[in-house]
Amino acid sequence: MKKCIILANGKPPHKSVIEYLKKKNYLTLLCADGGTNSAGRLKIIPDFIIGDFDSISEPTLNKFKSSSKIIQIKRQNDTDVEKCLKFAIRKKFNEAILLGVTGNRLDHTFCNLGIVLKFFNRIKLGIIAENSILTPYTGNIELKTHPNETISLYGLDNKTKIKSFELKYPLKNVTLPFGKKESTSNVALSNPLHIQVKGGIIFIIRDYQTIKKYDLL
User: Fold this and answer.
1) Which residues of the chain have pLDDT under 70?
2) Which of 8, 119, 170, 171 has a C-alpha 20 to 30 A away from that of 57?
3) Alpha carbon of residue 161 to chain centroid
């Protein structure tokens, strides 16, 4: 199972997040254009630097020329994060964690949430931002949990039905259409937690520190 980290140009993670992911076998770091600036500040060497290079500083690019594989892709019909994902898929990576994909640009944040959906059937994705980890799911799901762990579930449309009786607030074959209904700050009552999703994709958001402390990734 090949796993990678993609570091984008939004709010950078703490270096400890990347170190933790490396221990969980996310061994390859791809920087999406300006994400390389964050890698430089964190004193982390990317394996690959990919993008149209409209955001990376010239001193940073020069700094990594001898240590990183640099791939410039000038096309403008996809984002630098998408360029990284397409590269990862070509290189047969099975999983990727996206970092630096949120921040002070709400449009970028919203775009990157859409990218998680866009690539759902091509590579397993997750986002870590601040103290949260977001993962998309469909089908029959079994999650390792910690007693009384907070877990939030978000649907996207009226067709996706969700079932779980192992939550404090059970989901009895319900829909959670975006902008109408959600299951924020629910609580896991069992380990493992079983969730059934039919007809679409949902987002599950969990506490990163809990995931890390109890080795639930």
Assistant:
1) none
2) 119
3) 23
